[in-house]
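Let us practice reading a record.
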Amino acid sequence: MFNLVPVPPLDGFYVFSEIFPALKPLEKSQYGLFALMMLFLIPQFGDALAAIADFFMGFLLSK
């Protein structure tokens, strides 16, 4: 789930930028690395990713 976060160094950004081509210039900027560092400083970020992963795993396993 973490790799799908739409921040430029991660794969989620490349998927997201294919949907929204106006974001392509951000691919080469340093803002993505800064945003990624800020995500690590926010403790609730890990909790939110865990909740999303639990939801999707529960949805997939219930079928």
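A brief commentary: Residues 51 and 57 are 10 Å apart (CA to CA).
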